[in-house]
Write a structure and sequence with these properties.
The chain is mainly alpha-helical and 252 residues long. It has one domain. The chain is built from ten helices and no strands. The chain is globular, with a radius of gyration of 44 Å.
C-alpha cells in the first residue's frame, strides 16, 4: 500500500502537461525572487521528479523514500533558517528582475538554437531534458544571488541530476543515498550561514530643530513720550514767596 504512493503521484505527472508544468515551476524559482516561493517550488519539483522515476524505472521503495527524506529535511532546515532570521534574506543586494529574465531567456534561446540533444541511458529524452533543466535553474539561482538561503535552494536543485541519475544508473551502489545525505549537509551549511548573518542596525535619524519664527514687529509709528519737567527749587521758593506777600482780600 505504502509502496504504491510514489508511483501513483508520478503517474499523474509523467505526461506532457505534467513535465511542462514542472519545467515552468523550476523557471519561476529564478523569476519570482521570494525565498518562500523558491523553496516550495523546488521541493515540489524535486519530489515530482522522484515520483516520475518511481513510476517509469521502479528504483525501489527505499531509494525513493531516501530521496524524499533528503529533500524534505533540507527544505525544513532552510525554511527554519529563513523563518528565524528573515533579515538575512534582504541584507545583500541581489540581481533585479530584468537581469533574471534576460538570463532565463538566454538559456531558453541557447537550448532551442543549439539543441544539445543530450541523452542518458535508460532515460527518455523528455525526462533527460527535465532533469537538465532543473539543474540549470539551480545554477542560475546560485549565480544570481548573494544570500546563503537562495544559494542553498539553488544547490538543492543543482544536486537533482546527480540524485536522479544515481538511483537509475547505479541502483545497487548506494550513491542515491549518498546524494540525499549530501543534500542534507548542504542545507545544514546554508541554514547555518543564514543564521550567523549579522542583524542590520537601525539607523536613528535625528531631525534638526526647525528655525523659530521671528517675533512680529509692529509697523505703527512709535510716538515720543512726553515727560513733565520738574520745576527747580529756587523757582518754587520764589513763587511761594510771591503768594505770601500778595494782599488777602477780606470777605465781608
Amino acid at each position: 500500500m505504502i509502496e504504491s504512493i510514489f508511483p501513483a503521484i508520478g503517474l499523474l505527472l509523467a505526461t506532457g502537461p505534467g513535465v511542462l508544468l514542472l519545467a515552468t515551476l523550476a523557471a519561476s524559482i529564478v523569476l519570482i525572487w521570494d525565498w518562500r516561493w523558491a523553496l516550495a517550488a523546488a521541493v515540489i519539483a524535486l519530489l515530482a521528479l522522484s515520483s516520475i522515476q518511481a513510476t517509469l524505472h521502479h528504483p525501489g521503495f527505499l531509494v525513493t523514500s531516501s530521496q524524499w527524506i533528503g529533500i524534505i529535511t533540507t527544505a525544513l532546515l532552510l525554511g527554519l533558517a529563513g523563518r528565524l532570521h528573515p533579515a538575512a534574506v534582504t541584507m545583500h543586494t541581489n540581481s533585479n528582475w530584468l537581469t533574471r529574465l534576460v538570463a532565463v531567456l538566454f538559456v531558453l534561446g541557447a537550448w532551442w538554437v543549439l539543441d544539445p540533444g543530450v541523452s542518458l541511458p535508460l532515460f527518455t529524452q523528455v525526462e533527460t531534458d527535465l532533469i537538465l533543466w532543473i539543474g540549470l535553474c539551480g545554477l542560475l539561482l546560485v549565480s544570481l544571488t548573494a544570500t546563503p538561503l537562495h544559494t542553498g535552494i539553488g544547490l538543492l536543485l543543482l544536486l537533482a541530476p546527480l540524485q536522479a541519475t544515481a538511483a537509475i544508473l547505479l541502483p545497487g551502489s548506494g550513491l542515491a543515498v549518498i546524494a540525499s545525505i549530501a543534500q542534507i549537509l548542504v542545507g545544514l551549511a546554508c541554514a547555518y550561514l543564514t543564521l550567523v548573518q549579522p542583524t542590520p542596525r537601525r539607523v536613528v535619524r535625528q531631525a534638526l530643530p526647525l528655525p523659530s519664527a521671528p517675533a512680529p514687529t509692529s509697523t505703527r509709528p512709535r510716538l515720543p513720550a512726553f515727560r513733565r519737567q520738574a520745576l527747580p527749587t529756587s523757582r518754587i521758593a520764589a513763587e511761594s514767596g510771591r503768594e505770601s506777600q500778595a494782599p488777602v482780600e477780606k470777605i465781608v
